[in-house]
């Protein structure tokens, strides 16, 4: 009977141990395992969301880089266009300035030609008077000579 009493004692002890474990040990262990499983699941879902956010951010970065490159290209084209406009405006201004300088020079030359012609008329008139005085030294009528010289000046 010892074998049966021992077996019965061990079975009773095992039953108490199972009951004690099921009542006091198992619920905190299952709660801890459930909490850990929940944290792991939350971590995995956060990692997946992070991965999706990273992919979305990479797409936004690629779009922004594309837009920035396009904008930089547009700015370069606008700058080149403006540079050509400035060069054209400067060339037009230079042409206008050179035309003005040429016109001023022509006007000055024309004035100088007129002054030279007037000086030559006076010299020719003086030479004519001197020649006429020598030729007509015999005739001495100053009033007639003055009228004659005035008409000669008016002709030239």
From TrEMBL:
Component of the F(0) channel, it forms part of the peripheral stalk, linking F(1) to F(0). The b'-subunit is a diverged and duplicated form of b found in plants and photosynthetic bacteria. The lineage of its organism: Bacteria, Pseudomonadati, Pseudomonadota, Betaproteobacteria, Neisseriales. It is found in: Cell membrane; Endomembrane system. This is ATP synthase subunit b. F-type ATPases have 2 components, F(1) - the catalytic core - and F(0) - the membrane proton channel. F(1) has five subunits: alpha(3), beta(3), gamma(1), delta(1), epsilon(1). F(0) has three main subunits: a(1), b(2) and c(10-14). The alpha and beta chains form an alternating ring which encloses part of the gamma chain. F(1) is attached to F(0) by a central stalk formed by the gamma and epsilon chains, while a peripheral stalk is formed by the delta and b chains. The chain crosses the membrane at residues 6-26. The gene is atpF. It holds the Pfam family ATP-synt_B. Belongs to the ATPase B chain family. InterPro entries: ATP_synth_B-like_membr_sf, ATP_synth_b/b'su_bac/chlpt, ATP_synth_F0_bsu_bac, ATP_synthase_B_chain. GO terms for molecular function: proton-transporting ATP synthase activity, rotational mechanism; proton-transporting ATPase activity, rotational mechanism. It is a single-pass membrane protein.
